[in-house]
Amino acid sequence: xxxxxxxxxxxxxxxxxxxxxxxxxxxxxxxxxxxxxxxxxxxxxxxxxxxxxxxxxxxxxxxxxxxxxxxxxxxxxxxxxxxxxxxxxxxxxxxxxxxxxxxxxxxxxxxxxxxxxxxxxxxxxxxxxxxxxxxxxxxxxxxxxxxxxxxxxxxxxxxxxxxxxxx
Length: 167
Description:
Layout lengths: L2 H4 L2 H5 L4 E7 L4 E9 L6 E5 L7 E5 L4 E9 L2 H10 L3 H4 L3 H17 L4 E4 L5 E4 L3 E3 L8 E2 L3 H18 L1
Antiparallel strand pairs: 1-2, 1-5, 2-3, 3-4, 6-7, 7-8, 8-9
């Protein structure tokens, strides 16, 4: 086990959102922004943003890491950019106000059609339909989730139809 693997998750957390240089086995060097460190394998996920490109992720296995050097602290813009990597593109397109409007409009439409719906989760962002299906932001058919495939399929069709009428 190397020094990197022996660190604790709290130690690894200090590297998140920072530009680092990683020296790995066989003298391979990697440079990028630490998105996260896997607490089980100690593997590092680095994000790089080449000019005019979307960005890419690199995974360096924890057992291969020999040295990690912090090159630069991440500012708030970089932290947001890194956070957006893991956010679905659909929800990036909407402001919190727009998401609230979409949620309330869909909830009202479901209630009008006699479908029992409520809100759950932090800040009530998730819609709960009859206690067996949830709809997360941005409230489209892809965000519907249920263990009952029949209910899931039917509600996705309803939401699809509702959204088609809106456009």
